[in-house]
Amino acid sequence: MTQTAINYAKVLYELNIPQDVIAKTQSLVKENPQLMDVLMNPVVSFPEKEHVIDRIFPSEMQNFFKVLTRYHSADCLPDIFIYYENYAHEKQDILDATLYYVTPPTEEQIEGIKAKLAREYHRSQVDLELIQRQEVMGGFVVKVGDVETDYSILGRINDMRRQLVKRNS
User: Fold this and answer.
1) Nearest CA-CA partner of 152 in 162, 165, 143
2) What is the three-state SS of 18-66?
3) d(CA 151, CA 142)
């Protein structure tokens, strides 16, 4: 991720635009790749790009898009949206985590995992993404940033292999 995208994401957060407007704009960009083509095309004049922005994007986002276009930074938009969400969660004291599992956990288990992560990382809230992965074999794996905690059967098998190799060497 470029520093430019990070800077624009922080500015977008500081503009205090409602989250639903940003989500709507993100969907609009994702579902219509030709919009990005127009905004990044050097052949299309800036007044024409402004006209497209005024007609298509929510009013709260128009000035932001005009600045992006004026400074030829529209190509950073996908990264801007990613970093915006990360930055917003950081500012709101929300921890992003991923849970990989084979059998879907119960609501009670999910709440227990969230509570443990909130205590461990000193956060008020946890946003837990659930992803089913058959290769886990059983149990689960929790990933927070670059830290992965493996409570899976596959992880236990790999640990036993390492211990056996270590003993035989």
Assistant:
1) 143
2) CHHHHHHHHHHHHHCHHHHHHHHCCCCCHHHHHHHHHHHCCHHHHHHHH
3) 8
pLDDT along the chain (169 residues), means of 10: 88 93 92 90 92 94 94 91 91 93 93 94 93 88 90 84 80
- According to DSSP, residue 76 is labeled G
Q: What pLDDT shows up at residue 145?
A: 86
Beta bridge partners of 141: 100, 150
Spatial neighbors of 79 by CB under 8 A, at least 6 apart, are: 1, 2, 5, 9
State both tokens at 93.
């004291």
In angstroms, rounded to a whole number, what is the distance separating the alpha carbons of residues 83 and 61? Answer: 17
Helix (H, G, I), strand (E, B) or coil at 5: helix
CA 161, 165, 169: angle at the middle one, nearest 5? Answer: 175
The model's pTM: 0.70
Residue written as tokens 């050097």? 42
